[in-house]
Write a structure and sequence with these properties.
The complex is a heterodimer. Chain A is globular and about 60 Å long. Helices cover 41% and strands 0% of the residues of chain A. By secondary structure, chain B is an alpha+beta fold. In chain B, 36% of the residues lie in helices and 24% in strands. The longest helix of chain B is centred in the middle third of the chain and has 34 residues. Classes of the chains: A mainly alpha, B alpha+beta. The interface between A and B is large, with 77 and 94 residues.
Chain lengths: 192, 285
């Protein structure tokens, strides 16, 4: 049975690759990570890898993706609000901890996990530096909407353009329209 | 292709059990002939009616400390994620699977068996629900036409565009406004297409999940992703689904609908979203 299904699902109008091998090799990394990292079953096992390391990873990924502020503004925080993935989501202060910046790294890092938390703190400090270097306001990350990924903005999301200059950095250009979320709920915000 | 049956097949302390997916033990699901993460051979750990596809990996690399290294580097992460998905995908081509999240690691097979036993009921229900279904991703992109010169430079831009007696500044503002209007129109159209997604897909799908739009460096650069959704589709409907959804943006310049898949049902494998599919299917605006 699986063979015929495989052929059907792979399909001529599809990606042109046999089903079962297509997504693994050709899907873009964002799609892969979105699924493999963010979805699937979570079984809290007897190893804590699912929690702390994923948090480290998310910080690292944010650094890779963009400046943190921009990433968050654009909604790259799918992992952040999931208590099963992020210990930060659990302690209910996602924005503030990130915004704590270098002082947070020095003065009050959580201590329960020792070296790994030190790494978290180090990365956070790095994040804050990047933000400062980009001239972005420090508290900006607290603006992120703390909403589970499944819920729908449906026009209620406060997405007014921020006063941050579009030209603040060259990198901001391709993502400039990203502030807009849905075409139908911001008729006037861009005028004037 | 070694197989470990029952809870007895534990591994030694130098390895941990990395789990890819859970499927039914009945019907003898084959372990796909692919190598998983780090080239480790796959095996089945069965427990009652369930089986977990797992592989033994070195504890120093994939234990709590070692895995961190894998996750900190994007290239490594990509390898890990792709291998993980490859295994899940290959399994999914053969049988109904519940894909695990990345980096689900147990100390040994006995612990894994225990979890299978404890959650047998929930897993069984999920597997029933996902039987014969695949996940299809649908993304709507808005790609406004290339920006007018006015948008980047106020000077020397299309003098013919300047109306009689109009100051350059006013002309600039006018062009800029036109550009914005165009961009807004494209986004509005994309929004409308996105709003129609659930209704258009409804006859073909069993559940819907709404994800965050993808942005940033990792996202494809074909425009702004205004909608990112996943649908649970019967395998036999994949072709119809793809054709229907991909045609949605026909005649809407600047709007692009991308259909990906079939995927293993990652977005629907979590028990928490198991019942949400039908209700989420309602159009939200």
């Amino acid at each position: 049975m699986s063979d015929s299904i495989a052929r059907r699902a792979g399909g001529p109008s599809g990606m042109g690759v046999p089903y079962g091998t297509g997504q693994g090799t050709s899907a873009n990394l964002a799609d892969i990570l979105e699924r493999v990292l963010d979805r699937g079953i979570v079984i809290a096992g007897d190893i804590q890898i699912n929690l702390l390391d994923i948090e480290l990873l998310t910080i690292k990924l944010r650094l890779l993706v963009a400046s943190v502020d921009k990433a968050r503004e654009m909604g790259i925080d799918w992992w952040e609000h999931d208590p099963s993935l992020s210990s930060r989501a659990r302690d209910d202060a996602p924005g503030r901890q990130m915004a704590a910046g270098p002082s947070g790294a020095g003065s009050g890092p959580p201590v329960e996990k020792g070296a790994q938390d030190a790494e978290v703190a180090r990365l956070r400090a790095e994040v804050a530096e990047l933000r400062a270097a980009a001239g972005l306001p420090e508290g900006a990350s607290t603006r992120s909407a703390r909403r589970p990924p499944e819920s729908r903005p449906s026009g209620t999301r406060p997405r007014k353009p921020r006063p941050v200059s579009k030209d603040a950095s060259g990198a901001s250009e391709p993502s400039r329209p990203a502030r807009r979320h849905r075409g139908d709920d911001r008729d006037n915000e861009d005028e004037g | 292709m070694t197989r470990t049956h029952g809870a007895g097949g534990t591994t030694d302390r130098n390895t941990v059990s990395y789990v890819y997916a859970v499927c039914r033990a009945g019907g003898a699901p084959e372990v796909p002939d692919v190598r998983g993460v780090d080239g480790a051979p796959l095996r089945l750990v069965t427990q009652g009616s369930l089986a977990a596809v797992t592989a033994s990996l070195p504890a120093d690399e994939f234990g709590a400390g070692g895995l961190e290294e894998w996750l900190k580097d994007l290239d490594q992460l990509e390898r890990l994620a792709r291998s993980h998905n490859e295994v899940v995908d290959a399994l999914h081509a053969r049988t109904t699977v519940l894909p695990m999240r990345l980096a689900t690691v147990y100390l040994d097979d006995a612990r894994l068996s225990r979890v299978l036993r404890e959650r047998a009921e929930g897993f069984g229900q999920l597997l029933d629900r996902l039987d014969g279904q695949v996940e299809m991703g649908v993304k709507v992109y808005a790609t406004p036409a290339a920006r007018t010169p006015a948008a980047t430079s106020a000077r020397g831009a299309e003098p013919q565009d300047t109306a009689e007696g109009e100051s350059p500044g006013r002309a600039y503002l006018r062009r800029r406004q036109a550009h914005r209007r165009h961009s807004r129109d494209v986004h509005r159209t994309a929004g409308e297409v996105a709003a129609r997604l659930p209704r258009t897909a409804a006859p073909l799908v069993r559940a819907r999940a709404v994800h965050r739009p993808q942005q940033g460096e990792l996202a494809p650069r074909i425009g702004e992703n205004v909608a990112n959704e996943a649908y649970l589709v019967a395998r036999s409907d994949v072709m119809g689904f793809r054709g229907t959804l991909e045609g949605m943006a026909d005649g809407a310049p600047g709007v692009h609908v991308e259909v990906t898949g079939p995927w293993a049902p990652y977005s629907f494998a979590d028990g928490t979203s198991a019942d949400g599919g039908a209700t989420q299917g309602a159009p939200d605006d």
